[in-house]
Amino acid sequence: MKTSHGCRGRLQYVILAEGPQGFHNVTGHFKGHALPATFLIILSLWWSTRNILKYVCKKQKQTFYLGSKALFHRLELLEGTVLVGMALTGMAVHQFIPEGAHLTLFKEGQWNHLLNWHHFTMYFFFGLVGVADILCVTIRSLPSSLPKLMLSNALFVEAFIFHNHTHGWKMVEIFMHQLLGLVFFLTGLVAFMEFLLQNNVLLELLRSSLTMLQGSWFFQIDSVLYSPSWALAWKLMDSDNIMFLTICFCWHYAVSFIIIGANYAFVTW
Amino acid sequence: MKTSHGCRGRLQYVILAEGPQGFHNVTGHFKGHALPATFLIILSLWWSTRNILKYVCKKQKQTFYLGSKALFHRLELLEGTVLVGMALTGMAVHQFIPEGAHLTLFKEGQWNHLLNWHHFTMYFFFGLVGVADILCVTIRSLPSSLPKLMLSNALFVEAFIFHNHTHGWKMVEIFMHQLLGLVFFLTGLVAFMEFLLQNNVLLELLRSSLTMLQGSWFFQIDSVLYSPSWALAWKLMDSDNIMFLTICFCWHYAVSFIIIGANYAFVTW
Amino acid sequence: MKTSHGCRGRLQYVILAEGPQGFHNVTGHFKGHALPATFLIILSLWWSTRNILKYVCKKQKQTFYLGSKALFHRLELLEGTVLVGMALTGMAVHQFIPEGAHLTLFKEGQWNHLLNWHHFTMYFFFGLVGVADILCVTIRSLPSSLPKLMLSNALFVEAFIFHNHTHGWKMVEIFMHQLLGLVFFLTGLVAFMEFLLQNNVLLELLRSSLTMLQGSWFFQIDSVLYSPSWALAWKLMDSDNIMFLTICFCWHYAVSFIIIGANYAFVTW
Amino acid sequence: MKTSHGCRGRLQYVILAEGPQGFHNVTGHFKGHALPATFLIILSLWWSTRNILKYVCKKQKQTFYLGSKALFHRLELLEGTVLVGMALTGMAVHQFIPEGAHLTLFKEGQWNHLLNWHHFTMYFFFGLVGVADILCVTIRSLPSSLPKLMLSNALFVEAFIFHNHTHGWKMVEIFMHQLLGLVFFLTGLVAFMEFLLQNNVLLELLRSSLTMLQGSWFFQIDSVLYSPSWALAWKLMDSDNIMFLTICFCWHYAVSFIIIGANYAFVTW
What we know:
Number of strands of chain A: 2
Structural class of chain A: mainly alpha
Order of helices and strands of chain A: HHHHEEHHHHH
Oligomer: homotetramer
Strand content of chain A: under 5%
């Protein structure tokens, strides 16, 4: 008899094996995951490019760098605006799609579309990062590390929500979402370290690669759990799947490293 | 079949579902929670105002700041006295209200009002912070970061007590108190970082907003668990409630951020 | 129905409630705990006195401090020798008392007195700290922070051993030993921070007070679990006891703080 | 009734005691463990020798050190090449031995030799460290702390894989592999600290001794679980074994400390 992957998963396993398996609607999720996935991958590419450029400029010509400071400020302003825009889009999507919450939190004696409200809250915190970005560029008296702190906060909040996101799901689903929560937590940790130790280019690239891992893992979740053709092929209770997904996760990480490295080579060239 | 939110909650669930549900007196708690909640919110507003003032003074005029150093010392002395006063009030309340412990630890072969003794101990450690504040201002040879260390210690102790505070309670009660313990732990962590890295204004504001979160979450606990009219409306074993409270907690956090931000705008203006 | 304090304790509880309760010999432990308890309390008083003296010397007279450097080196040498001596005594006691292991690890097809070997290993690592102390004073080319690193290592090892020390015990026993393991872990963490950030007097005093907490909690364990008269009075499966011990632990901590503070007042005076 | 060592192990125990005990092929593992074990021990000796040499050179003659900088760069290049070579060997072994995966991930409706793919992934990440070493020496514009970051990453990835490596195994097997995962995690933590705080010789030696502990613990795992003569002698479900292995692990650690210390004495002499 095979056992599942952790205390949580194992108990889940025991309970589900005994009781009736909870029906879980999968079609609505696909759209919900593809959007943030694309967003996160673009964000990671953008962050890595900006940080590599900044590092290279700083190393090669001090004067040239000072000249381009205004440019970087303008880029930061743009970044903040885009972040706010993306967050508003995400929040609207989760409210006004047909399966959305339609701004109703409590309906007919029970909570209404709580998973949509979860996603809504996550987008909201990313929106706050964008607002902090914009405020920090426009108001000079604010400490310059504020956006880093807000980013780290937002990531910790996502990790916290993911940790409480998987009630009543099946083993493989839980495992995949817990891994996502773990990456969010680690990215938050790296962002917090950046907040404390400013101007460490490797930490910034590490954060970029972890952000890319978030995006690509979102796509992996989609392809395993919610794509119409594969959904039946995966046995959601088999612990062999856990062992495969463990190394699959590491491969995603390795690929994100290699992409960031290639980006570095491209930018310096 | 829905499952509960963690290893602890889930087992709790299994055990309670089988055995007789422990009766839990709720009326006495309301007063016990409203007091520290109000106290913590006032404290967080006061801390944020003081830290913003200090930061702005420092940035604008070095000379003006040096002149106001005596004022800040006097404010710290006042803060210490108020903290000691609040702690003594809290300790007295939990001993001498009708449902209090009346200084008796062991009565008729069993422990007497242990929850009151828990609260008593928590107030005592906050009192120690106040004492450290006063000592540090009056005796100059003491290291100036002592109050930060004592504060971080007090918060870790609260987190530890909260972690062992919820024996035999129901799922939603446990979850809400564990979240409170988590905030205390995180605030303690931030205070410890302040102790190591002095004069980082953002860490101080982060601590203020986490303190405000503690206060507002105390009120949320009251309104969910102990208010006369709502108490019956909440099903304390439903995991949907856990999922709602997760995002509710994040909203409290977002609101505390916004209030601290508004305070910043108000003070600098 | 009351439930126990954590995942570990709760499962323990369930299993023990079903199976026959394992008989647990208590008389041999009393001597085994009183020795390290006394040792740790003396050590904490000595450490706090030395660190306060060093801090006060440094603050008041730079010249006087330089003159007394030789004295501090001699004291460190003495400290190392005493530590090695205590460790050797402890190791010998656990081997050659009547209930000891008598240097036999495996006897009659099963492990022989593993708990004694556990204590033996703990003393051994404290002995290594003493050796590092002596080496560091005699050989000047060694980095001066070596003893701090060894101390932190020794404490982490103790915490690790305590974590795996309680197989088949009852709930209250496990809880008390886990708390001890927690204090060892925290003391190790503080010692590691001292290793990274040298010359922070408050961290050194925090370590002293945590060491005192270790010692006094050893005595508390003795009085709860192994003293002949009390042993029957404590119901080892009652979760009310856990809730009392939680605050009792905090009181021990508060007392150790106050003693270190009194020591500070005494030394500076 | 004895209980097992943690939440994971205990549940494992309960489940296995009820269900049929999963058959577990042991002969193929011996070769798989002896290779990395030898590799890690050689690596740790090499690292410690290099770091001690560097430290001593730096302390004694500033000029001599500057002259030998080219030598150290050449050594780093060699180290990178050897790491890549070892990683490629390890990856090939796990694919092309008779029990290997033969580059097939999915065969006959189920995952094919997942444990081999796990080991393959671990070697791959060590290979990345070697690549980073080589790149960092040849391309000067790269930040010099890149190899440390990659090493810490590789170690965290190993720890993560080990944590999900033991599905369906027996208690002693799980415990031994979890300890290995713990050492990988701690070594990763130390490497990350080295990345943040450069040129701390004690952290480098600590990493060396933890690496040696990894190697020697690999050998211990072999001798306990997979050697033909001992395999039957160990009862894999007995919690006394856990208690012995706990201190055995500490002894391995102490021995690795003493070997690194002897190496220090030898090199300085």
